[in-house]
Amino acid sequence: MSVITYRDALNQALREEMHRDDRVFIMGEEVAVYQGAYKVSKGLLQEFGEMRVVDTPITELGFAGVGVGAAMVGLRPIIEFMTWNFALLAIDQVVNSAAKMLYMSGGQYNMPMVFRGPNGAALQLSAQHSQAWESWLAHIPGLKVVAPGTPYDAKGLLKSAIRDDNPVIVLEGEMLYNTKGEVPENEEVIVPLGKAELKREGEHASIITHGKMVLAALQAADQLGKQGINVDVVDLRTIRPMDVDAITTSVRKTNRAVVLEEGWEICGVGAQVVDYIQRDCFDDLDAPVVRVHQADVPMPYAKNLERAAKPDAAKAIAAVKKVMYLE
Amino acid sequence: MATKVVMEALSPTMEEGRLVKWLKNEGDQIKNGETLAEVETDKAIMELVARGEGVLRKRLLNENDAAPVGQLIAVIAPPDENIDALVSSAGSAAAAPAAPAAPAAASAGATQEKVASGAPPAPPPARPAAPPAPSAAPSGNGGGRMRSSPLARRMASENGLDLQGVQGSGPGGRIIKRDIEAAVASGSAKQQPTAGRFVPAGEDYRDAPLTQIRKTIARRLSESIGPIPTFYLTAEFDMERVAEMRAAMAAMGDEFKVSFNDIVLKAVATALAQHPEVNAHWLGDKIRYFNRVHLGMAVAIEDGLITPVIFDADQKRMSEISRESRELAKRARERKLKPEEYTGSTFSVSNLGMFGIDQFTAIINPPEVGILAVGALEEKPVVVDGALAHRKRMRVTMSCDHRVVDGALGARFLQTLRRLIENPLMLVY
After folding, report:
1. Cβ-count burial B145-182 (b if 16+ within 10 Å, e if not)
2. A with B: how many residue pairs have Cβ under 8 Å apart?
3. A172 and A229 share a domain?
4. Which pLDDT score is estimated for B136?
5. Chain A residue at shortest CA distance from B157
6. Is A279 found in the same domain as A133?
7. What is the DSSP string of A275-288?
8. Minimum distance, in Å, between the CA of residue A288 and any CA atom of chain B
9. Same domain, A207 and A116
10. Domain-embedded: residue A147
11. Structural domains in chain B?
12. Given A60, A80, A174, A262, which residue is catalytic?
């Protein structure tokens, strides 16, 4: 077992899958010569050449569309967006082409492609560059959406995404790239799509979360543990299709749930989680479910305001205490 | 502020309770949640806890006397408060269906003051003022809506607990999991058999007062034998093969041992699955035939009997039936059965074989339409193929409600049962 960064885990996944299948190629801004805006594609140009590691102009809609066309004729493109904030320009290709092609061609065209890049806020990048898009993307039938929170999951989910015959959205995070975790060296790491993981086990409450907020949830769990409060941390890992069984199993055990996400409240992923809970666990609930999310404002630039707007471990702890009637 | 102590509904079917023992004397200081008395319900002996605090000023019910649910049986109040009006209203208040245990008209301020002065601090220190108790509206049934979490409601119904008697500690008085857990704990913590129930009243005889369970049995069974047109079918089964099977299983090790009764239960359940027309309830204006077999098994307990249920008995393996019947009988004798464990049977079996009874008739447990009375297994001389032989035999008698089960139908059921018991390998078919 070796400890590597989230960035290197993604890099390993790309390299391994490009070796495994020569139809796999990566395309995006700065992925080749510059080695990736966040160095995720480091070394790939040297290893695989410029036919499979392709720099593009600053034209998100254009290269996303080229990716869709490539997938239609049998290649397996990985489209890197420098961040998902920039991917808004390409949303038509993602939603209207990639997500619809299998359906509208009557099953003639699979769409074995990956759209990936960092999602959500980093530090002081202000309102336009600090947004979490998972609820937009997970809303669309025809897309699969994953949000790994650890290096292991990043590697395993990206590999599964590349092998899947449907368009898969991979949501990474600038603040995650440098985080470290254990990833086995000499064995295949595959995390199946659609399977959540219980990252921490407890009996008093469930924190259900995904992506970057997994780290906040684990911090919260550690601090709560010192106060004798033990929580389940359910890491969804895949947002669509969502592992409803993992959610309901945990809530049936603990009777109390906190849903933690990076994005905004209204129509957020957490709203869907709460719906599954109320539908399947009504008689198991001892308290209303509490959601923790970004404040309902464009992300402020000022450091103190940004901190106030973001969800974090302290807010998750307060929410757990609320569902336990401890405040 | 005075708190009325009323006879609470401590079981789902309780209509009155007998006060077994007062655990507090007049003049004792009472804390909220403390046990005041032991009350015998129609099913078990439960604890009655205080719903307020102060001094136990007056006890209005003598030990061994019974009171209907809702009747005022004591008053808790500060030492100097005048409670004459309350006490004198005791008789008339008995009839009023006031919400039990609601502290009379507690204003939020007063309650808060009460908490502040001397009461043990509630666990979460910053908790808002004690919740307004469900108020007893003049109309009777309570105008204030009681709040409870879905989980609390489910737990209450699983434990046969009346939410009316539970104090909510959540926001706005919401009853939550911990309140139910506390109520269940206080209700069962000191459950114990009553001692000295028999009162010597003379030299040649003694009078035993009617217990609640005796009353219930009397009411239920006379209800049964009266209006139910019952007839009886008796058959004698050959038990040689059952005995062989049982011995063969036991020879394989202790974990494979089953009793004759287990085998009979399994056979009855299997036969019922094949004869749903016997697996039914008479509901007055209709007959309900069940697709699932929930087998009641009569268990003798200290001062009566109770019929715990093996649910979906036809779907269970003999080992499961054996384990479950043993467990149910044990907990029945300890009076620890939950209400849902002794309701819902679709047919019953009563076995007095262990008392050496050759044959008897059992009384139908309405709304069921049949019950099988099982006698003792005996070695008997019988004629087999024209020659006298000695065989193990067992007699069963089925009581049938003729409104649903006709003679031929009952006979066919017993035929099936005979085939199963005389050829027990059919049980695995």
Report:
1. ebbbbbbbbbbbeebbbbbebbbbbbbebbbbbebbee
2. 31
3. no
4. 34
5. A283
6. no
7. HHHHHH-GGG-SS-
8. 8
9. no
10. yes
11. 3-188 (2.40.50.100), 213-428 (3.30.559.10)
12. A60
- The alpha-carbon gap from A327 to the nearest alpha carbon of chain B, in Å, equals 7
In a domain, A192, yes or no: no
B141 CB contacts (<8 Å, ≥6 apart)? B97, B99
CATH code at A232? 3.40.50.920
Judge: B149–A282 Cβ closer than 8 Å, yes or no.
Answer: no
pTM, two decimals, is 0.53
- Please state whether beta strands B304-306 and B299-301 pair in parallel, antiparallel, or not at all (unpaired): antiparallel
Q: Look at A325 and B153 and tell me if their CB atoms are within 8 Å.
A: no
Please identify every stretch of chain B with a pLDDT value under 50, giving residue numbers as ranges.
Answer: 92-143, 188-204
Contact A325 B171 (CB under 8 A): yes
Both structure tokens of A147: 């949000």
Partners of A254 on chain B (C-beta within 8 Å) are none
- Looking at the domain assignment, is residue A249 inside a domain? yes
For B172, the closest chain A residue by CA position comes to A325
A38 and A157 part of one domain: yes
Q: Which of A286, A326, A327 sits opposite B152 (nearest CB)?
A: A286
CB contact set of B202 (below 8 Å; sequence gap of 6+) = none
Final residue belonging to a domain, choices A153, A183, A213: A183
Q: Cα distance from A130 to chain B (closest Cα, Å)?
A: 37
Q: Which domain holds residue A53?
A: 2-183
Residues in chain A: 327
**A306 catalytic residue (yes or no):** no
Show residues of chain B in contact with A287, CB under 8 Å: 149, 170, 176
Q: Tell me, yes or no, whether A303 and A235 share the same domain.
A: yes
Which of A283, A284, A287 is the closest to B176 by Cβ? A287
Q: Which helix (H) or strand (E) holds B199?
A: strand B199-200
Residue A6 and residue A142 in one domain = yes
Tell me the CATH number at A137.
Answer: 3.40.50.970
> What is the domain count for chain A?
2
Percent of all residues in chain A with a pLDDT value above 90, rounded to a whole number: 98
Mean pLDDT confidence for A61-83: 97
- Is residue A188 a part of any domain in this protein? no
Radius of gyration of chain B (CA): 27
CB pair distance less than 8 Å for B150 and A282: yes
Q: Find out whether A138 and A239 touch, Cβ atoms under 8 Å.
A: yes
How many helices (DSSP H) and strands (DSSP E) are in chain A? 12, 14
pLDDT given at position B144: 58
A106 and A214 belong to one structural domain: no
Looking at the partner chain, which of B124, B151, B170 has a beta carbon nearest the beta carbon of A284?
A: B151
- What confidence score (pLDDT) does residue B210 get? 64
Q: Residue A285: how many CA atoms within 13 Å on its side-chain side? A: 22
Characterize the bridge pairing of strands A197-200 and A231-235.
Answer: antiparallel
